[in-house]
Amino acid sequence: MTLTSASTNPAAPNVAIVQPSRLTLTLRYFRRNKGLAIGLGILLALALFTIIGLLVIDPKKAYPLSAALKQSPSLKYPFGTDFFGRDLLAAMVVGMWQTAFIGLLAGGIGTALGVVLGFLAAYFGGWVDGVIRTICQILTPIPVLLIQVVVAGSLDKRDVTIVTMAMIVAMLAWMGPTLVIRAQVLTLKERQFVAVAKLSGVSDMGIIFKEILPNLLPFIAAAFVGQVFGAVFASFYLAVLGLGPLREPLLGNIIWAAQSQGAFFNGWWWWPLEPAFAMILILGALALVNMGLDELANPRVRRTE
Amino acid sequence: MNIRIVARRLLFFVLVVWAASTIVFFIPRLSPRNAIRERFGELARTGGFSPADVEKLIASMQQQFGLDKPLLEQYWQYLGNILRMDFGYSLSRYPMTVTDVIAQSLPWTIGLLLVTTVISFVLGTILGAVAAWPKAPGWLRSTATPFILLTGVPPVIMGILLLFFIGFRLKWLPLGGAYSVGIVPTWSWSFFIDLMEHQILPALSLILGSVGGWVLSMRGMGITIQGEDYVNFAEHKGLTGRRIFRDYYLRNALLPQVTGLALALGTVVTSAVVVEGLFGLPGIGTALNLAIRANDFPVIYGIVLFITIAIALLMTLLEFVYPLLDPRIRAN
Fold first, then answer.
1. Cβ separation of A259 and B277 shorter than 8 Å?
2. Interface predicted TM-score (ipTM)
3. Is the CB of B304 less than 8 angstroms away from the CB of A147?
4. Is residue B193 part of a domain?
5. Which of A147, A116, A145, A146 is closest to A132 using CA atoms?
6. CA-CA distance, A250 to A82, in Å (whole number)?
7. Which residues of A touch B132 (CB under 8 A)?
8. Contact yes or no for B176 and A151 at CB 8 A
9. In chain B, how many domains are there?
10. 138-157 of B, contacting A, C-beta below 8 A
11. CATH number of the domain that B110 lies in?
12. pLDDT at A70
């Protein structure tokens, strides 16, 4: 604002050009990158719903036999209750929290594995690169979700908890980030500033952590969001198939339970519908953030419209 | 395409199948869970066998399934069985083999998958091509928008929404099953209509969310191609818009779409599996669902492996189709 007034009003030459604050710049960037802003907004709203819910609601109500059975949404039970006597409002709050937990844990592990492996492959090259790349290529066409079905199916039902669920999901999800980080490191390590650092005697570790890693951060952030999306989706998929921790009110589990009890045939429409809407919000918001971050990380693929 | 490339593709296919089989073989054996013991444990609880008899049964079953041999020997035998598409016996429907279970449910899945994939691929590609084509009428270009908004909604969730709005609220279409209860399958017109009515919602839940993806990739490709010299050249040569659209623009933009189809196969099949389960169609997905509920491990592993092999095979086949579509690849 100051800038425009200075240029249009030559009578006031002494107006200082003020550097806009960080906040203004961020807000301006959000105005250009609307997808990122909307996605973050929805995620924030969901986080608030979960946090306030966890503070206000008794989490025990999310488990069977804690409320009246099969009540449609009313003042007492805003989201209704299900066949097993769970208050669905409480179930949604706890389920949302568990979904977020699985997503962040599995996404974090998957990204960390991908970053380390991608780094090793690209930085050291040679046979290390060959082995890692070949494994990624062979594993990529195998539908990961189905392999996860095998893993989850082999476990004792009592052993399946929220944490094992996250581990199952993370175990087979590192191939994507590995290839992305590998490609980025390959281009970065040929840049001049890395050559300069090498010539001035910086050690391998110094180059990795001080020269290359900071340049990778946007890509790591984008890969992380992608991984969280994948993890949320994979855990949802397993739970819908009945391979989740059956007692927990994970969103996929609620749908699985509703489907096994023939919820629509019996007219309990709210039961499967609520987790479905929650899932749309979570996945939609994550997809928007993911696309927005891609744009932030890769200015070259910014929209040309 | 020369022999070396063909050989390399085939080798890659064999490697993928081998990797998948190995994973499916070793993961269950790393777990302390014993499928046969659990199965007969259930029977013993419900059927009143004496524990000694159950132990004998388990031992004889272990022997029959070859589970008493050393692990490596089992592994070799297993790989040989996979080559012959022999996945062993189903535990919950015992005299049936896993291959029987798959063969019984496969036609349903193939029918659903073929129809939905073709519809969403063709529809998405055409809409995407039109959306990027500046001379197309405005209303036609904007038909793609609703599909783009639905991109990425998982098919199960789409299925639940469709069930609620169309099946439950409007009562236009049935809520599930392959055909109405009480109808005997016959080769009649009325049965065919009933069958189709039950297929519409599952098909829609697979189609609606996936069209947008094809639209987006095709539109991106289309925008790039419009700037190419050969399109300009065709315009200046005075070719009709229709001819440019079909021969210069569509044909070149299609190639990445076919690659995308190969990459999407895994997602398409895995999402069909859950949708079938949701609607209770008697396909592979429902067979998997039932097997998971009944702890029928050979069926679970067999189905997973079968799907993986089928996908790898289709991907390899699609790679052999490229040269037919693209003369540039043929020349190299």
1. yes
2. 0.76
3. yes
4. yes
5. A116
6. 14
7. none
8. no
9. 1
10. 152-154, 156-157
11. 1.10.3720.10
12. 65
